[in-house]
Amino acid sequence: MSPATLFDKLWDRHLVTTNDEGLDLIHIDRSLLTDLSGTIGLEEMEQDDSAVACPGLHAAMPDHVIPTGSEDTPQQAKLRARFVVNLDRLSKQTGIRHFARGSGRQGIVHVVGLEQGFTLPGTTLVCGDSHTSTHGAVGALAWGIGSTEVKHVLATQTLWMKRPKRARVWLDGTLQRGVFSKDLILWLIGRLGADYGREHAVEFTGPVIEALSVEARASVCNLGVEMGARFALIAPDDTTFRYLAGRTYAPEPALWEAALEDWRRLKTDPGAQFDKEIYLDASEVTPQITWGISPEQVTNLGGAVPLSGADDGALDYMGLAPGQSLEGLPVDYVFIGSCANSRIEDLRLVADIVRGKRVAERVTAWVVPGSEAVKRAAEDEGLAKIFLAAGFQWREPGCSMCNAVNGDLVAPGKRAVSTSNRNFVGRQGPNARTHLASPATAAACALAGEIRLSQE
Amino acid sequence: MKAFITHKGIAAPLPLDNIDTDVIIPMGPLMMTPRGELGKKAFMPLRYREDGSEAPEFVLNQAPYQRASILVAGRNFGCGSSREGAVHALEGFGIRIVIAPSFGDIFFGNCIKNGVLPVILEDAAHDSALQAAGITRGEAFFKVSLPDQIVTLPDGTCLPFDFDPGHKVRLLEGMDEIALTEQYRQDVLDYQEKDRRDRPWIWAIEHMA
Ligand code: SF4
What we know:
By secondary structure, chain A is α/β, with parallel strands linked by helices. Chain A has 15 helices and 19 strands.
């Protein structure tokens, strides 16, 4: 057999058939249903009186819309009644497992899927959410879909797809101390552009990736879609297998060895061909922060807005001038959360930085754990106490200020440093100004009350 | 899914790169607006000022582009969130075709599902389309034929474009995909039966809560 890429191995294994026009019918092993696209998909199924083909292969949970505070505003109550309640009702009706708030398993789909072992190496996994690429962190072929496709998966457990091209990003060297996987991926997006991965499945590989934990890999794959890659992939290895062992939906002991044997084959063969490939030395990466309204508008430690060529619309929206240094810009909000960075390792890191210190007076600072499991772990480890003592709010799990449709938002014109993945116009609230950064940088900015990129 | 064959209409230039689906339709309004009325909310952050009045500098607020059915956009159009509402909002405004050098992958797929034609024109061809959209000020129509895969500019210039044959059939025929897939039901069942033997751990979760 000719050498194959990891992507092709995964694709071919799930190929049911190919039609006359060259579209592939791909079997879907796992699907995640959010309280937005998932609810909408299930509602449409109900309207059409369609049956769910394989209810046992889905998991539903509220994340996007569910509020993260202790009481609902009237607006939040209205959204909850439509989206959160309906997801619960329709999941029960169709026999789909549902992780309600309080179940101990609720959280952001891309945090929960991995931590519950629902996402496994070699699975195809889809969700009506673009950051489904996150699940590539354990060697799953995972991609975001629209709501028509959500319905198609519910009804048939398959999708018609055009085979994408393959790209490989090879990262050599070692990350410097104080530089995190979030910095790495922001740096990559800055260098390669927000559409580098368009029409491609992108495999991230090399010593830098191998050295990362599964959670740190998840941040890389999460923002893979911000460089245009609908599919982001990292080959599973011993780090992955150790991470998965014993998780709720991971193979039980009787099946574990057979699964491992299968998973160990999930890697790109030497000599396999990619449609494009790039080798980079990541030793030069320093802490990154975005200045504009696309994740590709990013700069590094001590950095500034470009002197020329910066897009005027972006500068105007962000209230910045060409050549302006970001260092020292007053910050109004710090948001630590979202499927990019709300896992336990992220929270441990933040706790280390803010322990015994105080958030600057002017800053509204939140920590929103990615899931109930993360929340419980952080409370057990004493991290929550550290956050509260430092002046952070400690909230219930959900997407929160990442999408600002659940009542959690940055006030108009205010500046936020956020560990989320999108700095788009209006993303964190109308006219909110978002700077994306790692949890370490966000924590440092919260303490300083201004943008401060430190590598300590 | 609606069928798409040929179309004639006013083309509006919107030469910004990385227009994301949060800009095409912000999530807040998307959740609060019935699908049939989403057109009014399309491009909200660019189209309206804070006080709700129209921003005169935005191209789709200018005559004759308020009647545009074709958009000539910049690189990576429709990147970001997977929300299909972005396509519904464009449709609601009356846009049937988007011409751009590149598209966000998920948005591209969502267009196909909804009978909106995403046309990729690169470099020189894209420049001429953009220019023509700006110069004619909508006085003359663009023509787009999917069967021939040609965009015809008002001055008669023909710009051919590539289009995946699989996607083309879907757009031309406007078929119901789920019904179509039902024809392959036995293939899917056969696949699953074999996979249950090969990879039992994939299926072991079926009866777990
Ligand atoms: S945290 Fe943000 S990016 Fe992640 S799923 Fe929620 S809304 Fe999407």
